[in-house]
Amino acid sequence: RKEVEQDPGPFNVPEGATVAFNCTYSNSASQSFFWYRQDCRKEPKLLMSVYSSGNEDGRFTAQLNRASQYISLLIRDSKLSDSATYLCVVNRAGNMLTFGGGTRLMVKP
Amino acid sequence: DVKVTQSSRYLVKRTGEKVFLECVQDMDHENMFWYRQDPGLGLRLIYFSYDVKMKEKGDIPEGYSVSREKKERFSLILESASTNQTSMYLCASSLTGTSMNTEAFFGQGTRLTVV
């Protein structure tokens, strides 16, 4: 079993839709959690950290459920520019970052 | 501006060659990483270094070694390149610290083809 698992998608949604991605992780000792975004042929970049109490950044909301060991990302009012691959990232002890396989989002006009 | 620079964007090497991939960061980060990214498999950690001359194996270290002689530079070495090492290689760096400031910054990637 992979340490960090995501549905690869693709998720095809119309502009303006709300879309949610989930990610599960297997190591209960994981300390911190992030969502990264990767555009085609580009390097990954941090989208947002995921706080225990949940956090929001504009149209993006991240949630963490430690008991069930999953992380979610909600995108409201999807834009064409949101089309990308979203990577769930877990920080094991010792600052070692483990990436999920990514979920591909395609927002259509 | 934060910068992680990988020495090459594209490389073509022959089977059996020794290959060096270089990565330099200018942020004084303690941690540096090498990942490879393959379709359907995502980013997989090859090696991790948390300090000069210190290294830890990641999930797929076989066939690779690393060198970190200076804080800003982390090299990935393919001792004898094989075709199954054809991939996109990504270097990253991050601070050591509390959980929420461990954002990793990535280089632009090196697409290595072994023929």
Summarize this structure as a short list of keywords or feature phrases.
heterodimer, A: 109 residues, mainly beta, 5-stranded antiparallel β-sheet, 11 strands, B: 115 residues, 4-stranded antiparallel β-sheet, 0% helix
Write the layout of secondary structure elements.
The complex is a heterodimer of chains A (109) and B (115).
Chain A: E1 4-6, E2 11-14, E3 19-25, E4 32-38, E5 45-50, E6 55-57, E7 60-65, E8 70-75, E9 84-92, E10 96-99, E11 103-108
Parallel strand pairs in A: 2-11
Antiparallel strand pairs in A: 1-3, 3-8, 4-5, 4-9, 6-7, 7-8, 9-10, 9-11
Chain B: E1 4-6, E2 10-13, E3 19-25, E4 31-38, E5 42-51, E6 54-57, E7 64-70, E8 73-78, E9 87-94, E10 105-106, E11 110-114
Parallel strand pairs in B: 2-11
Antiparallel strand pairs in B: 1-3, 3-8, 4-5, 4-9, 5-6, 7-8, 9-10, 9-11
Care to give the gist of this entry?
The complex is a heterodimer of chains A (109) and B (115). Chain A is an all-beta fold and 109 residues long. Chain A is built from no helices and 11 strands.
Please summarize the sheet with the most strands of chain A.
6 strands, mixed
Integer-rounded radius of gyration of chain B:
13 Å
Envelope shape of chain B: globular
Alpha-beta content class of chain B: mainly beta
Structural overview:
The complex is a heterodimer of chains A (109) and B (115). By secondary structure, chain A is an all-beta fold. In chain A, a hairpin with a 2-residue loop joins strand 6 and strand 7. Chain A contains no helices and eleven strands. Chain A is 0% helix and 56% strand. Chain A has strands spanning 4-6, 11-14, 19-25, 32-38, 45-50, 55-57, 60-65, 70-75, 84-92, 96-99, 103-108. The model of chain A has no long low-confidence stretch (mean pLDDT 92). Chain A is globular. The termini of chain A are far apart. Chain B is mainly beta. Chain B has strands spanning 4-6, 10-13, 19-25, 31-38, 42-51, 54-57, 64-70, 73-78, 87-94, 105-106, 110-114. In chain B, strands 2, 4, 5, 6, 9, 10 and 11 form a seven-stranded mixed beta sheet that branches. Chain B has a four-stranded antiparallel beta sheet with strand order 1-3-8-7, with no helix packed on it. In chain B, a hairpin with a 2-residue loop joins strand 5 (42-51) and strand 6. The mean pLDDT of chain B is 92. The interface between A and B is medium-sized, with 23 and 27 residues.
